[in-house]
């Protein structure tokens, strides 16, 4: 598919994104991540109880890479295999944390937003690097943050999850707002830089990829 058509599709889907306070009570949170080995993508989903953060379910899927990585179009590479992984789970999570962007994206549709709109889950994007939006660096202590902005709108947070470590770039995906992002991400990141559900998904996807 040509990039011009993908841009049109992203803008159309972005119109369906809803940034609103989380309505449901959270008892389970999923982490989602994808690894690659040669021409194959390996998706992993880990579902954890909340707030206990105990693993209660998981799913896995593998597929051939359909398009290469292109900044701003990650979801078209990883979305299909993640959907297959979600079909393998038996517990439907109340919220999904995604290793990727939410609305902090040039067209407002990062991977977390794409997944949220199509699958109907509340989602939060937790990216390790910056893609879009202006910001200043937060303080050096855990919980410090600065708001990312674009075109006069607040689109995410630059959040320090551990003292003196690089911050995460957190943005609402779908059916959550910035306050939800701050509260939930900090609550599921007790020890490391990366939220526990995403750390698990990343580890398992990587193990699958290396074993292939």
Structural features, described:
It is built from five helices and eight strands; from the N terminus they run αβββαβαββββαα. The protein has a single domain (about 5-210), classed as archaeoglobus fulgidus dsm 4304 superfamily (archaeoglobus fulgidus dsm 4304 fold, 2-Layer Sandwich), CATH 3.30.2170.10. It is of the alpha+beta class. About 30% of the residues lie in helices and about 30% in strands. The mean pLDDT is about 95. The radius of gyration is 16 Å and the shape is globular. Helix 2 crosses helix 3 (about 110-120). The longest helix has 16 residues, at about 195-210. The protein has an eight-stranded mixed beta sheet with strand order 3-2-1-4-5-8-7-6, sandwiched between helices. The protein starts with a helix and ends with a helix.
Concise synopsis of the structure shown:
The protein has 212 residues and is of the alpha+beta class.
CATH superfamily assignment?
A: archaeoglobus fulgidus dsm 4304 superfamily
Q: Major β-sheet, in short?
A: 8 strands, mixed
Q: For the largest beta sheet, what order do the strands appear in spatially?
A: 3-2-1-4-5-8-7-6
What is the C-alpha radius of gyration, as a whole number of Å?
A: 16 Å
The succession of helices and strands, N to C, reads HEEEHEHEEEEHH
CATH class: Alpha Beta
The low-pLDDT segments are none
Shape field: globular
Number of helices: 5
Q: Termini, distance in Å?
A: 28 Å
Labels describing this entry:
212 residues, single chain, archaeoglobus fulgidus dsm 4304 fold, alpha+beta
Which helices and strands, and how do they pair?
Blueprint lengths: L2 H12 L13 E10 L2 E10 L5 E10 L9 H13 L8 E4 L12 H9 L3 E5 L17 E6 L2 E7 L8 E7 L3 H10 L8 H16 L1
Parallel strand pairs: 1-4, 4-5
Antiparallel strand pairs: 1-2, 2-3, 5-8, 6-7, 7-8
């Amino acid at each position: 598919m040509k990039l011009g058509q993908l841009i049109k599709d992203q803008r159309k889907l972005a119109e369906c994104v809803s940034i609103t306070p989380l309505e449901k009570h959270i008892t389970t949170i999923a982490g989602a991540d994808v690894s690659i080995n040669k021409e194959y993508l390996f998706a992993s989903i880990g579902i954890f109880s909340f707030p206990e953060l105990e693993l209660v379910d998981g799913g896995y899927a593998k597929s051939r890479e359909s398009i290469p990585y292109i900044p701003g179009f990650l979801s078209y590479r990883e979305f299909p295999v993640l959907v297959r992984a979600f079909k393998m789970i038996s517990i439907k999570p109340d919220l999904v944390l995604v290793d990727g962007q939410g609305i902090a994206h040039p067209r407002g549709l990062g991977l977390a937003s794409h997944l949220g709109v199509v699958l109907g889950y509340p989602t939060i994007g937790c990216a390790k690097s910056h893609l879009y939006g202006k910001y200043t660096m937060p303080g050096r202590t855990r919980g410090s943050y600065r708001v990312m902005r674009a075109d006069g709108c607040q689109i995410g947070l630059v959040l320090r999850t551990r003292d003196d470590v690089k911050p995460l770039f957190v943005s609402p995906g779908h059916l959550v707002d910035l306050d939800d992002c701050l509260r939930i991400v900090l609550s599921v990141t007790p020890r490391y830089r990366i939220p526990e559900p995403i750390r698990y998904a990343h580890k398992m996807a990587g193990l699958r990829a290396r074993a292939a």
